[in-house]
Amino acid sequence: MREELLEQLEEWHEQDEFEEIVDAITAIDVEERDYELIGHLGRALNNLERYEEAVEQFLTVAEEGQDDPLWHYRIGLAYYYLELYEKAREAFETADRLDPGDEDTQEFLEWIRSKTAEKPAEEEIQETAQETAHSVPAISMEQPSVSDPNSTDFWDDNAEALQNWVLPSPTDDQVESVEDRLVFKLPRAYVDMMKLHNGGIPRYRYVPFSEAGAAEKRLIEISGILGIGQEKKHSLCGEEGSRWIIEQNGYPEIGVVLCKCPSDAEIIMLDYRASDNTGEPEVVHVDKGNNYKITWIAPDFDTFVRSLVNEDNRRPDLSDSI
Description:
Blueprint: H1 2-14, H2 18-26, H3 35-47, H4 51-59, H5 62-65, H6 69-81, H7 85-98, H8 103-116, H9 122-132, H10 159-164, H11 172-182, H12 188-196, E1 206-209, E2 218-221, E3 224-225, H13 242-249, E4 255-260, E5 266-271, E6 282-287, E7 293-298, H14 301-307
Antiparallel strand pairs: 1-2, 3-4, 4-5, 5-6, 6-7
Helix pairs in contact: 2-3, 3-4, 3-6, 4-6, 6-7, 7-8
Domain Knr4/Smi1-like: 169-307
InterPro entries: Knr4/Smi1-like_dom, Knr4/Smi1-like_sf, TPR-like_helical_dom_sf, TPR_rpt
Keywords: TPR repeat
């Protein structure tokens, strides 16, 4: 009987029937739930994004899980999405010690390092920018932004860009209409940027990011940023927009395609998994050619735009925009 249940739980997991797993295990008396069943229950709760409940379950078998890298990985994942990054770090570091070299564990540790890196104060950012002329100011309505075509050469408005990418500035009603179609609320910084220049091909179109275990950062090239609308081929709701890209290529349903890449097997997405559909999404890279591997790029759109560099790994010069 028990073996049949475990086989059924695995089958439900493969079919993404996570509610079935939760219902089946919670129907069993608490006293009869052993370590393996709690592991299945916690994993299903994680997949349902019920992370607090998952942590509660994992902690009931904490003593038995101390030498199990999978237990540390699963509770670390729950802590991560609850934004309890120090607890998540401890869990993933223990998982890595018990099972060295696991790629997923290394990836989470890299994401945690990126999220918990100390951020300089705003005054320090401005001072550093003025001294080095290599930083890009945050997108703001109070000062010129790198996205403002009247104050910077951020955009490359060549003939191809104007024909297939650039749209008129969207109205509030158009923004709301696109959000309704996508079922996601677009980041405020992105909307503000698109009202100044709605989609297009940036001159600074390389995204630096760190891979777990790599000594140096890698650069990902983007083809362009999708604008708000449907009239142009490369716009959020266009002929080859976000939904089309996801459905045609089998990309994960985690949010909205933000940027296309020269390779059809790569995209940059707004990732809403750590928030609800109306929250602030993170920015990730999805690699179809590597089993749809998702790599964290930036905590929000504003940070993503400010991180873009040219092919020589240099950011726009502030003297061009201020």
